[in-house]
Task: structure prediction
Amino acid sequence: MSSLLEVENLHVHIKTQLGVVQAVRGVSFSLEKGETLAIVGESGSGKSITVKGIMGLLPNNGRVAEGVVRMEGRELTTLPEREMQKIRGEEISMIFQDPMTSLNPTMTVGKQIMEVIHEHHPELSKETLKERAIEQIRLVGLSNPETRFGQYPHQLSGGMRQRVIIAIALACNPKILIADEPTTALDVTIQAQILDLMKELQGKIDTSIILITHNLGVVANIADRVAVMYGGRLVETGGLRDLFYETAHPYTKGLLASIPKLHEHNQQLFSILGTPPDLMDPPKGCPFAARCPHTMKVCQEYMPEYTSLSGTHKAACWLLDERAKKQGKDGADNA
Amino acid sequence: MPEERVILQVKNLKRYFNVGKNQMLKAVDDVSFSIYRGETFGLVGESGCGKSTLGRTIIRLYSATGGTVLFDGADVSGKMSAAQSHELSRRMQMIFQDPYASLNPRMKVMDIIAEGIDAHHLAKSAQERAQMVVDLLEVVGLQEEHANRFPHEFSGGQRQRIGIARALAVNPDFIIADEPISALDVSIQAQVINLLKKLQEERKLTYLFIAHDLSMVKYISDRVGVMYLGSMTELAESKELFDNPLHPYTQALLSAIPLPDPDLEQSRKRVPLQGNISSPINLPECCHFCSRCPKATEQCRKVTPKMAEVRPGHFVACHLIKPGQE
Result:
């Protein structure tokens, strides 16, 4: 029970004109101090909504229908908005995908950083605030911090803006940094710079990171543990090596096989047929059953339980169930 | 390579944009290359390097500022008669990046796909037109009943298939695919790429495949060109380019791609690249990569390097690499 953050059986519902979308359907995971957890999944798999549920930043039509989010023993989902406001920024902060739209275009970079620090430390004088803002700009590796302080977002490139956003997110030394696709909008050479920066800063200020991404290369670069989401459920979680080398769930396998490898030649590109399930009317069985090459009758009828494979590595798939193996239906090659 | 194998030859193509008083943005500056019949030519580079502008200039969505484009030996870059450009639009087609923006939301799929068929009078009767659309839908993996739906009823991957069917409707020889998969999810990307490969085999298509996802480009392309700030910096066969990149920019670009394999990813050496792409407006005479290049010399800051063939089929524009030496 010493985890920094614990999420238990989280359900998030989003009301739309056409009905209720069950975007997150019973997600549980924990985050330890100083580690990087990557949440991987396709668009619509519920990964962004999961962290928005944790942060209390769901859209007006969304609500946490069930489940517990505990940070250092403190329950977050029932906290009043004013308390939550204090936790955001100071304890947990978030970086969004698009560096072009998450900064205020009419405020200088320095002022935007000062604003966050002021919000959480109203006692600080203006001079101290400025000093800390400049310190923060230096921390994220921007040249000429004093000049950058007075510049507007449009004067900076995409990579530089993402650095400013990281500076803002880390301004109050949060314990958890949630990064929602932080490098998706950036070019690969800039992406490499930002990933290096995140790793370096994590070492310096000992923050835990939850990284949301669909890029498995980014995951391999930075993550300690990985959680794979599909159709609003966690289908597999485990250490980085477990996920890549001891892959258990057919969806994770398919995902890994559908990216061409740079260092290999002439391999056939695998593609997962079909499309993800409609979460307005989610399947009662395994969410991946309709696209799975090993699908069985039981997959369509019953939601698979998690099978523990080793220490932290577990996957929800009927093929891993003991009974499946007994009947000789061992289609899952555990290699 | 024999001349008749070349389907498209681009010679010193330039496309400049006037972006204000005395400000010239050279989006494509003096680019030359050839594409052979039946191959896939991949074009990669970071955002703003001019790869999309190059594709759009070839297909005449932009007029060329200078240089020529020869398609099957005929110049298609300057003024053309209505009949000529009509014929070109049948033989050269384009697939766009954003499947949400490139289909008219007020038209049914049937009419979207048949637009080219109508323009070129390829169908003799309404019945034949409908049959052609149904056949095309089948080719790209959609069903007959999809013809009477509107674009908003489809997912991103399905829409991209509609875009592909539209491009195929006029039986083109050459298709420019401008980032056809970057708006799609990983598992859907593989579906679309496999479809493009299958169609290429069946219909003997030639592709110009523009993308920034290098691993996908490597997978689908026979030859690859790398662009940086409006110029081609390196061009080689796909395997050769990825195994043996010579230009410092290509080396940095390849080393920056995160590999989906933890052991490889965390053990390999990066070629670190400092700074950002410089502004493409009013570029001085120099190697455009010199401000970020770890090996830049005095010569690089003064003279723009020219493309040179350092090995058979492997072209590099860099002062530091001379033919026969590595």
